[in-house]
Specification:
The protein is of the alpha/beta class. The chain has helices at residues 15-23, 67-81, 97-109, 125-129, 151-158, 162-173, 189-197, 243-258, 274-285, 302-315, 338-349, 355-368, 406-420, 447-472, and strands at 4-9, 41-47, 50-56, 84-90, 112-118, 140-142, 177-183, 215-221, 224-230, 261-267, 289-295, 324-326, 373-374, 377-378, 380-388, 393-399, 428-433. Strand 5, helix 4 (125-129) and strand 6 (140-142) form a beta-alpha-beta unit. Keywords: GTP-binding, Hydrolase, Nucleotide-binding, Repeat, Ribosome biogenesis.
Length: 473
């Protein structure tokens, strides 16, 4: 679905200029006096293959009468049509009563609204935006629309990524939480699927390779929608010879990508083997939430159970954030409890966190344990924002981030996971450094500066000669 972005704000804050920059056109009239735009105007933009629609609106003041009242009605209608509302304010004029009135209306509308501080060129952007933070918006963008500054980074955060667009397409086909059930052959995946459904929906037989294709089964449980994905067992590569089995494995790997939460089924009688670890690695590489189900727990001796638990805890120590369940899919013991873990994993994977909260966590982590120094300079991490979901992606901005050691990245991951209470889902970090705007530019001196530089060099040489003569004496 194509996102619709509405631009609202007081008169003469730069809405039409931003409209032209986002649509790469000159469709909207721009002049340095208020009230030029009266009707709402639609345009189409494209950012890295993602199409979007922009609505330019007339200015709002809060005390409109006559023609201005009709213009205000058009602007408010655009807010109702939009998926995303950009509330533009003037960084030079500062916060006004009209800005506060518009902010209150946007909060009541319940729309996804973002504060955009325009006209920050020629001044410190942070100082220009200081007054507007009191409006209480979760995300604030600092731009200079007339110079096309800050608009690309704003669109990068506002528009869904390619992965998020694919996720939306899958959501239309398979509703609710998609649960992939994976594991080695004959560990009880299909039995577990039937037990979770409460009926014999897929074929179960005591022979490896019974399930050949991935089976998607939508259903509803206690008012929640789910889609269970039963998959073929994945054996070690050297044991895979049949062409059909090769295609089955490909379908299983695709099902992992489609899932929100993956339940990895382990045979308790055989214990944790290397192939289970390979499957866990693939699930984590795909960025999917993980629940461990140790099946065939019924009828085992207490000594064997203790041995298996010790092995799982020891070899899966790196998965301390993933829930582990010891179940019997055949008899149903422990199966119903897994839905709580699935729900918690899904909420963690799809969570949305405001930029100010992520930045506060980052600043607290840095204050408690600073990054190391590189070439005599301290690595600085300035702010963080969310870059995606399933898995959650946190983008950290700073300088010299390429030199940030792996141990410090793990420290940040553990800190964010603990504070945000992320269960079962991996967290991915992206580190970005600000580009030097003067890199590659030649410092060209004016004629007056050249004369001054030559005089300074001559003066320096004279002083050097005088010191050398005094040392010889």
């Amino acid at each position: 679905m194509t996102p619709v972005i509405a631009l609202v704000g007081r008169p003469n804050v730069g809405k039409s200029t931003l409209f032209n920059q986002m649509t790469r056109s000159r469709d909207a009239l721009v002049a340095d006096f208020p009230g030029l735009t009266r009707d709402r105007k639609y345009g189409e933009g494209n950012y890295e293959g993602q199409r979007f629609i922009v609505i330019d609106t007339g200015g709002l003041t809060g005390d409109e009468q006559g023609l201005d009242a009709e213009m205000a009605r058009q602007s408010l209608q655009a807010v109702e049509e939009a998926d995303i509302v950009l509330f533009l304010v003037d960084g030079r004029s500062g916060l006004t009563a009209g800005d506060e009135s518009i902010a209150n209306h946007l909060r009541r509308s319940g729309k996804q609204a973002h504060l955009v501080v325009n006209k920050t060129d020629g001044q410190d952007p942070d100082i220009a935006a200081a007054d507007f933070y009191s409006l209480g918006f979760d995300s604030t963008f600092l731009i200079a629309a007339s110079h096309n500054r800050g608009i690309r980074s704003m669109l990068e955060l506002l528009l869904p990524s390619e992965e998020e667009r694919e996720e939306a397409d899958r959501a239309d086909r398979y509703p609710g939480i998609r649960i992939g059930v994976v594991g080695r052959p004959n560990v009880g995946k299909s039995t577990l699927v039937n037990r979770m459904l409460g009926e014999d929906r897929v074929v179960v037989y005591d022979m490896p390779g019974t399930t050949r294709d991935s089976v998607y089964i939508p259903y509803e449980r206690q008012g929640h929608e789910y889609t269970l994905i039963d998959t073929a067992g994945v054996r070690r590569r050297k044991n895979v010879r049949e062409t059909v089995e090769k295609f089955s494995i490909i379908k299983t790997l695709q099902a992992i990508d489609d899932a929100h939460v993956v339940i990895l089924v382990i045979d308790a009688r055989e214990g944790l083997v290397d192939q289970d670890l390979h499957l866990i690695g693939f699930v984590l590489d795909a960025g999917r939430s993980l629940v461990i189900a140790v099946n065939k727990w019924d009828g085992m001796d207490p000594e064997d159970r203790a041995r298996v638990k010790e092995q799982v805890q020891r070899r899966l120590d790196f998965l301390d954030y993933a829930d582990k369940h010891y179940i019997s899919a055949l008899h149903g013991s422990g199966v119903g409890v897994m839905y709580d873990s699935v729900q918690a994993c899904f909420e963690s994977a799809m969570a949305k966190w405001p930029t100010n909260r992520l930045t506060a966590i980052l600043q607290d982590a840095v204050a408690q344990h600073q990054p190391p120094m590189v070439h005599g300079r301290r690595i600085k991490l300035r702010f963080a924002h969310q870059g995606g979901s399933n898995p959650p992606v946190i983008v950290v901005h700073g300088n010299q981030v390429d030199a940030l050691p792996g141990a410090y990245k793990r420290y940040l991951e553990n800190t964010f996971r603990k504070v945000l209470n992320v269960t079962g889902s991996p967290i991915r970090f992206e580190f970005k450094s600000g580009e030097n705007p003067f890199a590659g530019k030649v410092d060209r001196l004016t004629p007056r500066q050249k004369v001054k530089k030559d005089n300074d060099l001559k003066k320096g040489r004279r002083i050097k000669k005088t010191r050398q003569k005094s040392l010889k004496r």
